[in-house]
Design goal:
about 625 residues, alpha/beta, Aconitase, domain 3, Aconitase, domain 4, 3 domains, 7-stranded mixed sheet, 5-stranded parallel sheet, 25 strands, about 30% helix, about 20% strand
C-alpha cells in the first residue's frame, strides 16, 4: 500500500515506516521559539538542566511584539537573547519578521522537512510541502534539548478544488470557502493534501494563505505538492541559508530540494471535493472564521479600521495587490488603515518598488514587520465598539481587541478602507464613500487584574491518582478557543502562579470561573476544546487552579498535546456535556476511560494511552526526562 505525503515525511524523520495512529519520536529539522513563548522555553530548559541538541538548527524569532512596546515582551526577548548568546543560537530579532515566513524565505526547512514553533500557524510550512507544527513551550524545550519530539501520525484527507473562482476572487477567498466547507473542526486531527488545476497554478503567497488557515479548520497541516516555481524558490532560500551559516552548514549534509509526493496508491481517510467554480469575494463575520458569507451580503456596513498583514496575508504579493487598489485613492475620513509586512525583506522590496509610497499617500499607518495585532502586538488591535476589516486568520471574540473583526482578502480590506464601509473592489465605482461612525463607548477596565483568591501551582506533587472525583463544571459549548480560555493580553505572563486568575475571563457567561472554581473540580465541555493558538498558558491556568480533569467531546490538536505534556488530565468522552448535570460529583477513571455519575450510570470515554498515563503520573513531559 502506498503512502501519503505526511506518512512519507514522518517515516523519513522517524527512521522507520509508519501508519496512521503510530506514536513516534521524529527528528525536527528546525526548532523555533518566539518572543511570547521563548522565555518559558528557556525557563523549562534551565529548570530541568537540559542541553541544546544542535544550536545550528535552533532559533528564536521575535515577531509577536517586535517593538517591545510591552514591558513583559521586552523582558522575555532579553531573556531569550541572553540564552542565545550563551548557547550559540541564532536570533531572528525584531527586525526580521514573522518566524514561519523567515523559515521559508531563509531556507531553514525545505520540502519534506520538519519544523516546530511556539506559533500555532507553523503549519504554513505545508505551502512548500513541509511539515510544520505549532506546539507549547514544553514540547519546544524538548525539541531544543533532544532534537526530537513525539507525534501521532495523522490520517490524511485528499481535498480537490473543483473549477476556478471568478476573476474577482483571491486565494484568501478560496481559503474562506474551505473554512466555510469544513467549519471550525472539520479537519480536526487530519492532515490534508490539496489538489486541482487551481492549486497547481497557485504561487507561494497563495499557498501560504491557504495553508495558514488549516489551523482554523482544526487541521494538523494542509500540504501542497510543490510546483516548479515553489521548488526554485526553496533552492534560492537554501543558498541564503548556506551563506548565512558562515560555513557551518555544508550543502552535502543537507537534503536536496526535491518534492515529497503521495504515492498513486496512497490510502486516504476520505476524499473531499470543494466546488470553487465562479467563487466571488467572501468575508468571515465577527467571532468565527468559519462564519463565511459573500462580501455583497454585508456590503455597506460602516467600518472604523482596516488591517492588512499577518502570517496569512502579509506576503509581497498580498501587499502589492492592496497597494494597487489604493493607488490614486485615499482612506475614507474617520477610517484608520494599518499595514504590516510579514518580513523585513518584504518591507524593503515594497520600499524599492514604490508600494510603500502608495500606502503612505493613501493615508495608511505602516509598521515594522511582524505579527501585529494577532498576539496583542504593537499594531492592529481595535477598541470597544470598533468595526475592523482584517486580512488575518482569526476573528475570535477579543482576539484582535474589543471590537468586531471581519476577515477578508487584501483587496477587500483595501477597498473597505477607501469606501469607509465593507466593500469589494468591483463596488468602488458605485458604492457611496462615507466615513464610519462608532458609538461612544466608556473606557473598559477589563485589562485590570481581577481580585481573586491566591492560587497554588503544584503539578509535581508526586504520583497522581488514576481515578479522581470532583464537582462538574458543565460548559456545553463547542469550539472554545484559547483566547476564550486565556486571553492574549496575558500572554507575556510567565509565572504559572499568576495564570489561574484569568481562566475563562474571555468566555461569555463564565468570566467568574476562576473566583468560583475549587481544587479538584472537573470541567466538562463540548467539541474542539482549546482550538486556536499554541499558548501553553491555556493549559497551565487550569493546573494553577487545581482542576483535576477536563472532559470534552474532542480537543484542538495542539491543545491536546500541550495538556498531555503538562500533565493536565484530559479525556475525550462524546456527549458527556449533554449527560452530566452541572455541579454534580462525578468520578473519572483515566485508565478505564469511564465517567461515573452519582446515580451509578456510566459514560464511556477514551482511556489514557500508556504514554499519556506515564506523562500524567510523573507531572509532565520534562519531569524526570
Amino acid at each position: 500500500m502506498g503512502r501519503t505525503i505526511i506518512e512519507k515525511i514522518i517515516s523519513a524523520h522517524a527512521g522507520r515506516d509508519v501508519v496512521p495512529g503510530d506514536m513516534v519520536d521524529i527528528e525536527i529539522d528546525a526548532r523555533i521559539a518566539r518572543d511570547f513563548g521563548g522565555a518559558n522555553v528557556v525557563k523549562n530548559l534551565r529548570d530541568h538542566g537540559l542541553p541544546i541538541a544542535d544550536p545550528g538548527r535552533t532559533f528564536f524569532t521575535f515577531d509577536c511584539n517586535p517593538g517591545g512596546s510591552d514591558q513583559s515582551y521586552a523582558s522575555n526577548q532579553h531573556v531569550c537573547r541572553l540564552f542565545a548568546r550563551e548557547h550559540g543560537i541564532r536570533v531572528y530579532d525584531i527586525d526580521a519578521g514573522i518566524g514561519t515566513h523567515v523559515a521559508i524565505d531563509e531556507g531553514l526547512v525545505g520540502p519534506g522537512g520538519t519544523l516546530v514553533s511556539t506559533d500555532s500557524h507553523a503549519n504554513i510550512l505545508g505551502a512548500i510541502g513541509a511539515f510544520g507544527q505549532g506546539m507549547g513551550d514544553q514540547d519546544i524545550a524538548h525539541a531544543f534539548a533532544y532534537g526530537t519530539t513525539w507525534f501521532v501520525v495523522p490520517r490524511t484527507l485528499r481535498v480537490t478544488l473543483k473549477g476556478r473562482p471568478s476573476p474577482a476572487a483571491t486565494p484568501k477567498d478560496v481559503t474562506l470557502a474551505l473554512t466555510r466547507h469544513f467549519g471550525a473542526n472539520g479537519l480536526l486531527g487530519y492532515a490534508a493534501e490539496l489538489y486541482g488545476p487551481y492549486v497547481e497554478e497557485l504561487d507561494l503567497a497563495g499557498r501560504v494563505t491557504l495553508a495558514s488557515m488549516c489551523t482554523e479548520m482544526g487541521g494538523i497541516v494542509l500540504l501542497f505538492p510543490p510546483n516548479d516555481q515553489v521548488l526554485e524558490y526553496c533552492r534560492r532560500a537554501r543558498e541564503r541559508f548556506l551563506a548565512a551559516s558562515g560555513g557551518q552548514a555544508v550543502a552535502s549534509d543537507l537534503p536536496s530540494i526535491e518534492p515529497v509526493l503521495a504515492d498513486a496508491d496512497a490510502s486516504y481517510a476520505g476524499e473531499v471535493v470543494v466546488d470553487i467554480d465562479g467563487l466571488e469575494p467572501l468575508v468571515s463575520r465577527p467571532g468565527h472564521p468559519e462564519d463565511v458569507v459573500p462580501v455583497a451580503s454585508v456590503q455597506g456596513k460602516p467600518v472604523d479600521s482596516v488591517f492588512i498583514g499577518s502570517c496569512t496575508n502579509g506576503r509581497y504579493e498580498d501587499l502589492v495587490a492592496a497597494a494597487r487598489v489604493l493607488e490614486g485613492r485615499r482612506v475614507a475620513p474617520g477610517v484608520v488603515l494599518k499595514v504590516v509586512p510579514a518580513t523585513d525583506a518584504i518591507w524593503r522590496r515594497l520600499l524599492d518598488d514604490g508600494s510603500l509610497q502608495l500606502f503612505k499617500d493613501a493615508g495608511a499607518l505602516l509598521s515594522n514587520a511582524g505579527c501585529a495585532g494577532c498576539a496583542a502586538g504593537q499594531v492592529g488591535q481595535n477598541g470597544p465598539g470598533e468595526v475592523t476589516v482584517s486580512t488575518g486568520n482569526r476573528n475570535f471574540v477579543g482576539k484582535q481587541g474589543k471590537g468586531e473583526v471581519y476577515l477578508g482578502s487584501p483587496e477587500t480590506a483595501a477597498a473597505s478602507a477607501v469606501a469607509g464601509v465593507i466593500a469589494s473592489v468591483d463596488a468602488l465605482g458605485s458604492i457611496e464613500v462615507r466615513p464610519a461612525a462608532s458609538p461612544v463607548v466608556a473606557a473598559s477596565s477589563a485589562s485590570a487584574a481581577p481580585a481573586v483568591k491566591p492560587q497554588v501551582h503544584d503539578p509535581e506533587g508526586g504520583e497522581r491518582p488514576v481515578v479522581v472525583k470532583g464537582r462538574a463544571w458543565v460548559i456545553p459549548v463547542d469550539n472554545i478557543d484559547t483566547d476564550m480560555i486565556y486571553h492574549n493580553r496575558y500572554l507575556a505572563i510567565t509565572d504559572p502562579a499568576l495564570m489561574g486568575q484569568y481562566t475563562f475571563d474571555n468566555l461569555s457567561g463564565w468570566e467568574d470561573f476562576a473566583q468560583k472554581a475549587q481544587p479538584g473540580d472537573i470541567v466538562v465541555t463540548g467539541k474542539n476544546f482549546g482550538c486556536g493558538s499554541s499558548r501553553q498558558q491555556a493549559v497551565d491556568c487550569f493546573l494553577t487552579l487545581g482542576i483535576a480533569a477536563i472532559v470534552a467531546d474532542s480537543f484542538g490538536a495542539i491543545y491536546e498535546r500541550n495538556a498531555v505534556n503538562a500533565g493536565l488530565a484530559i479525556m475525550m468522552a462524546e456527549g458527556a456535556a449533554g449527560a452530566i448535570q452541572d455541579g454534580e460529583e462525578i468520578e473519572v477513571d483515566f485508565q478505564a476511560g469511564t465517567i461515573r455519575r452519582p446515580d451509578g450510570s456510566q459514560i464511556e470515554g477514551r482511556p489514557f494511552s500508556d504514554a499519556q498515563l506515564r506523562i500524567y503520573q510523573r507531572g509532565g513531559l520534562l519531569v524526570g526526562a
